[in-house]
Target: SDR family oxidoreductase
Amino acid sequence: MPRPISLITGASSGIGAETARALAAAGHDVIVGYGGNERAAKELAAELAAGHGVEATPVAFDLARPATAAAQLRAAVRAAGGIDVLVNNAGINRRSPAVDEDLESWYRVLDTNLTSPFALAQEAARTMIAQGRGGRIVNVTSVHEHIPISGGSTYCVAKSGLGMLTKVMAMELAAHGITVNSVAPGETATPMNGVPAGHPATAIARPAIPAGRPGGPHEVAAFIAHLVSDGAAYTTGTSLVVDGGLSLVAAEANAAHAGRL
Model:
């Protein structure tokens, strides 16, 4: 039986790299999508092929240009012989007060974090439908899919938009055996967040998070691996929050003052 083929964007480091490792360990051939870090993507592809005996191919994606990214997916899928899993993991972060935000930055974040994931999911879904064997799409959003943060107008809009796209596509694609879900991480110890690869999340104190620390990228990847497995065939249109309890404590700061005049 042929191995499933998975495409992961932003797979050269962080959550994407750990997801690639988890899926290769589960017997998937992996398209290792990357932006600017070609060397890391090639090293990871070699690691997966040597360690798990799967096909692993690094492919560049220009997510700042959605039409180009869609064409890159089509070429990668054609070369790989199909696609069974798409993980829209890549994204960029930004903080700026809404009154100071500029339209160039607004469009750049939305193109990278929302429009390109839509274009890739659309192309992947078309191929999955044509293949007739179902499929899995997982969009990596953020806890800010659900809760806002000051300075996050552009980022939060993109992530919440991707969360709603997840639900719409889940409804539309269910009849084809394709599930669509999102994973919404809280703070995660990754290079994008200033934490070097391999630095343990358990060594970083975060007193405001109930778990007392940020998450490790492998902890988020474990949820993604579950959602693309056969065991998650009945799970679609949901958002799995992986945040150590961060989103539970929004009212805590005010609780100390409640009831006072």
About this structure: The chain is about 40% helix and 15% strand.
